Amino acid sequence: MIPTNDAVGHVPEWLRIARLFKGIRETIGGKLNPKVAEFFKATHFPLAKLTSTTPWCAALVSYALEQAYAPSPRTANAAACAAFGEECEPKLGAIIVLAPGVQGAGISGHVGFYEGTLTPESFWLFSGNCMNTAKSHVYPVSRIVACRWPVIGEGPRAA
């Protein structure tokens, strides 16, 4: 069962925003979904190079953080998120970076927002580009490369 908001505590604004896109597909009629393309505006990825096969998990993370007025890694590269913010323990809304080799993880791995523990060996992650959609999915704890939290007051959105 996917954790509910009430079951796991306060939902950070960036996770609430990311979840608004649950079920969004990366393509519409064989072409890149314009909403997915919009996520890339929160990154430094050259928009002219976007295709319907460009991984977009990190773009959704950057977009959701920016929409929540939180610091953002501004990257389209999952692995680059491992150096963003500060290290933390897994908690609701934490940015989790997975090693390559997990189903759905590209060559730079995969990234999304922690939703909760399923078993001692697995957890729920909400992410984009998970089997070509945005959704919650279970991943093995052993594949976590980094668990990060935005440092409020730092980064491109700091006042």
Describe the structure.
This protein is of the alpha+beta class. The protein has a single domain (10-149), classed as Alpha-Beta Complex (endopeptidase fold (from Nostoc punctiforme)), CATH 3.90.1720. It is built from 4 helices and 8 strands, in the order ααββααββββββ. The strands form 2 sheets. A 6-stranded antiparallel β-sheet has the order 3-8-4-5-6-7. A two-stranded antiparallel ribbon has the order 1-2. Strand 1 and strand 2 form a beta hairpin. Helix 2 (13-19) packs across helix 4 (57-67). It is globular, with a radius of gyration of 14 Å. The termini are far apart. The model has no long low-confidence stretch (mean pLDDT 89).
Strand order, biggest sheet? 3-8-4-5-6-7
* 3D shape: globular
Query: How many DSSP E strands?
Result: 8
Structural domain tally = 1
Please bin the fraction of helical residues. Answer: 10-25%
CATH topology: endopeptidase fold (from Nostoc punctiforme)
Topology as a string of helices (H) and strands (E): HHEEHHEEEEEE
CATH class: Alpha Beta
**Sheet having the most strands:** 6 strands, antiparallel
Q: Which percent range describes the beta-strand content?
A: 25-35%
Radius of gyration: 14 Å
Number of helices: 4
Catalogue the unreliable spans. none
- How confident overall, as mean pLDDT? 89
Structure classification:
alpha+beta
CATH architecture: Alpha-Beta Complex
